[in-house]
Design goal:
about 15% helix; 4 helices; alpha+beta; 8-stranded mixed beta sheet; about 180 residues; 3-stranded antiparallel beta sheet; single chain
C-alpha cells in the first residue's frame, strides 16, 4: 500500500514514491539501515549487534483496527518502511521470505516491540499495539522486522509473494 523512509531519527517516516532495499543493509537512505543495530536503545546496549531490524513492515489492517478505538494512523506514521494490505504479517513464522515487487527479498526476523514513543505520537495508542492472549501471552501488533536478502526497488501497489520456511515453523518473537 505504501513505502516510507527517513534519513533522520524521527518516529514517523514520510511516504515515498519508491524505496530501494539494499542487500544486507536495509532501506537506502533510511536512518535504520546498516549491518549493525541502528535503533537507539539497541545501540546503547551493544552497538556491535547484527541489525535484525533493517526493514519494518506493518499491515494496514492494524490502522483500521485502531481506528475503531478512535485513533487515526496513516502509512509511515508508526515508523514503518512498508505498509501492506491483505497479508497476516503477525502469523508468519521466523525466516519467511517476502518478495516485494520484482526483485527485493526480505527475510522476517521477528516482531517489533512497541515502545513508549507510540504514546508520544498519540496518547493511549500504545495500549492498542499490545494485547494478551487468553493464556496471558503478550501479543505485539506493531508489525514485523526483517533483513534484506536481495535488493531492489519497492513501490506502493507492488505485489508481495510469501515463501514460508521449511517446517517446523518457529513463531515470531520480539527482536
Amino acid at each position: 500500500m505504501a513505502v516510507s523512509s527517513n534519513g533522520a531519527y524521527s518516529f514517523t517516516k514520510p511516504t515515498r514514491e519508491s524505496i530501494t532495499l539494499l542487500a544486507g543493509l536495509g532501506v537506502e537512505g533510511d536512518v535504520h539501515a546498516g549491518v549493525t543495530v541502528k535503533h537507539r536503545s539497541r545501540v546503547a546496549q551493544d552497538p556491535t549487534q547484527p541489525n535484525l531490524r533493517q526493514v519494518h513492515l506493518i499491515h494496514h489492517e492494524l490502522f483500521e483496527e485502531v481506528g475503531g478505538a478512535g485513533f487515526t494512523v496513516a502509512p509511515g506514521q508508526l515508523g514503518e518502511n512498508v505498509t501492506t494490505v491483505g497479508i497476516d504479517l503477525l502469523s508468519l513464522p521466523t525466516g519467511t521470505l517476502l518478495r516485494l515487487g520484482e526483485e527485493a527479498v526480505v527475510e522476517i526476523t521477528g516482531l517489533r516491540n512497541p515502545c513508549l514513543q507510540i504514546d508520544a505520537f498519540q496518547d493511549g495508542l500504545l495500549k492498542q499495539m499490545v494485547g494478551r492472549e487468553e493464556d496471558g501471552r503478550i501479543v505485539r501488533k506493531a508489525g514485523i522486522m526483517g533483513v534484506v536478502r536481495q535488493g531492489g526497488t519497492v513501490r506502493p501497489g507492488d505485489p508481495i509473494t510469501v515463501t514460508l520456511p521449511a517446517e517446523p515453523h518457529v513463531p515470531l518473537a520480539r527482536v
